[in-house]
């Protein structure tokens, strides 16, 4: 005989994701919990892009800025090589989706919306905030293009390292930049007992516009 349905569990009746919450503030709360509990890279997120023809692709990147002050209306920023495969997708289709899955917390956040490129000043500041070796590694990489032999990359690293070692900084390549996603949809998902999970979706029509929210069937 199967066990009775868990309907008498009073704790399951209420959503733990507050209605009417500010999704940026809620993101901050969950992100702080992830930074305290994840063994590494709590800021790692899957970034989904699509070609002009709507063929999707996804890969991990690091969240390097977020919140209401990020751009007017708030946003989520990552940095990359704009000539990479993802960069080509973004140039053709300035929209993306982000996904955080914090396994130790059993929580997921999904964020969707249009992208804007960061200013050259912002890209410079972030590029030069990274260690010298990271600047060299990025400047030497034709990200996503075929590399005939690994030594070709290492030779280029050596060359760039030697050329800029005295200054201790590498000029930011023009194609190395950042993008900020302006959310139109943010969804919070949390694991609950008996697989009766909890989801709340926040939607808005424009950057800075009012959010509406609803629970979703899990
Ligand atoms: C945890 C993690 C974090 C990463 N962070 C970045 C990042 O911030 N920027 C980036 O360009 N690539 C990052 N990468 C590498 C990307 O996943 C990917 O391999 C690379 O950007 C090329 O993707 P593309 O060919 O789709 O453009 C990261 C990979 C992992 C596993």
From TrEMBL:
<feature type="binding site">
    <location>
        <position position="189"/>
    </location>
    <ligand>
        <name>FMN</name>
    </ligand>
</feature>
<dbReference type="Pfam" id="PF01243">
    <property type="entry name" value="PNPOx_N"/>
</dbReference>
<keyword id="KW-0288">FMN</keyword>
<dbReference type="GO" id="GO:0004733">
    <property type="term" value="F:pyridoxamine phosphate oxidase activity"/>
</dbReference>
<feature type="binding site">
    <location>
        <position position="130"/>
    </location>
    <ligand>
        <name>substrate</name>
    </ligand>
</feature>
<keyword id="KW-0560">Oxidoreductase</keyword>
<feature type="binding site">
    <location>
        <begin position="143"/>
        <end position="144"/>
    </location>
    <ligand>
        <name>FMN</name>
    </ligand>
</feature>
<dbReference type="InterPro" id="IPR011576">
    <property type="entry name" value="Pyridox_Oxase_N"/>
</dbReference>
<feature type="binding site">
    <location>
        <begin position="195"/>
        <end position="197"/>
    </location>
    <ligand>
        <name>substrate</name>
    </ligand>
</feature>
<feature type="binding site">
    <location>
        <position position="199"/>
    </location>
    <ligand>
        <name>FMN</name>
    </ligand>
</feature>
<dbReference type="InterPro" id="IPR012349">
    <property type="entry name" value="Split_barrel_FMN-bd"/>
</dbReference>
<comment type="subunit">
    <text>Homodimer.</text>
</comment>
<comment type="similarity">
    <text>Belongs to the pyridoxamine 5'-phosphate oxidase family.</text>
</comment>
<feature type="binding site">
    <location>
        <begin position="59"/>
        <end position="64"/>
    </location>
    <ligand>
        <name>FMN</name>
    </ligand>
</feature>
<protein>
    <recommendedName>
        <fullName>Pyridoxine/pyridoxamine 5'-phosphate oxidase</fullName>
        <ecNumber>1.4.3.5</ecNumber>
    </recommendedName>
</protein>
<comment type="pathway">
    <text>Cofactor metabolism; pyridoxal 5'-phosphate salvage; pyridoxal 5'-phosphate from pyridoxamine 5'-phosphate: step 1/1.</text>
</comment>
<feature type="binding site">
    <location>
        <position position="85"/>
    </location>
    <ligand>
        <name>FMN</name>
    </ligand>
</feature>
<feature type="binding site">
    <location>
        <position position="64"/>
    </location>
    <ligand>
        <name>substrate</name>
    </ligand>
</feature>
<feature type="binding site">
    <location>
        <position position="86"/>
    </location>
    <ligand>
        <name>FMN</name>
    </ligand>
</feature>
<dbReference type="Pfam" id="PF10590">
    <property type="entry name" value="PNP_phzG_C"/>
</dbReference>
<comment type="pathway">
    <text>Cofactor metabolism; pyridoxal 5'-phosphate salvage; pyridoxal 5'-phosphate from pyridoxine 5'-phosphate: step 1/1.</text>
</comment>
<dbReference type="InterPro" id="IPR000659">
    <property type="entry name" value="Pyridox_Oxase"/>
</dbReference>
<keyword id="KW-0285">Flavoprotein</keyword>
<dbReference type="GO" id="GO:0008615">
    <property type="term" value="P:pyridoxine biosynthetic process"/>
</dbReference>
<feature type="domain" description="Pyridoxine 5'-phosphate oxidase dimerisation C-terminal">
    <location>
        <begin position="176"/>
        <end position="218"/>
    </location>
</feature>
<feature type="domain" description="Pyridoxamine 5'-phosphate oxidase N-terminal">
    <location>
        <begin position="38"/>
        <end position="161"/>
    </location>
</feature>
<dbReference type="GO" id="GO:0010181">
    <property type="term" value="F:FMN binding"/>
</dbReference>
<feature type="binding site">
    <location>
        <begin position="79"/>
        <end position="80"/>
    </location>
    <ligand>
        <name>FMN</name>
    </ligand>
</feature>
<keyword id="KW-0664">Pyridoxine biosynthesis</keyword>
<comment type="function">
    <text>Catalyzes the oxidation of either pyridoxine 5'-phosphate (PNP) or pyridoxamine 5'-phosphate (PMP) into pyridoxal 5'-phosphate (PLP).</text>
</comment>
<feature type="binding site">
    <location>
        <position position="108"/>
    </location>
    <ligand>
        <name>FMN</name>
    </ligand>
</feature>
<dbReference type="InterPro" id="IPR019576">
    <property type="entry name" value="Pyridoxamine_oxidase_dimer_C"/>
</dbReference>
<feature type="binding site">
    <location>
        <position position="134"/>
    </location>
    <ligand>
        <name>substrate</name>
    </ligand>
</feature>
<feature type="binding site">
    <location>
        <position position="126"/>
    </location>
    <ligand>
        <name>substrate</name>
    </ligand>
</feature>
């Amino acid at each position: 005989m199967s066990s009775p349905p868990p309907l008498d569990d009073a704790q399951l009746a209420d959503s733990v994701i507050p209605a009417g919450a500010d999704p940026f503030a809620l993101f901050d709360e969950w992100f702080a919990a992830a930074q305290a509990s994840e063994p590494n890279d709590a800021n790692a997120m899957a970034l989904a892009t699509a070609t002009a023809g709507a063929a999707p692709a996804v890969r991990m990147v690091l969240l390097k800025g977020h919140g209401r002050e990020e751009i007017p209306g708030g946003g989520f920023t990552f940095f990359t090589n704009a000539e990479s495969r993802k960069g080509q997708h973004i140039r053709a289709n300035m929209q993306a989706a982000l996904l955080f899955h914090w396994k130790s917390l059993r929580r997921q956040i999904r964020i969707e919306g249009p992208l804007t490129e960061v200013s050259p000043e912002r890209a410079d500041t972030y590029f030069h905030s990274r260690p010298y070796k990271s600047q060299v590694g990025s400047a030497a990489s034709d990200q996503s293009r075929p590399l005939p032999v690994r030594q070709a990359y290492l030779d280029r690293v050596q060359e760039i390292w030697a050329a800029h070692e005295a200054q201790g900084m590498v000029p930011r390549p023009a194609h190395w930049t950042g993008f900020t996603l302006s959310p139109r949809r943010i969804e919070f998902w949390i694991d609950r007992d008996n697989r009766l999970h909890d989801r709340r979706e926040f939607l808005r029509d424009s950057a800075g516009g009012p959010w509406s929210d609803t629970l979703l069937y899990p």
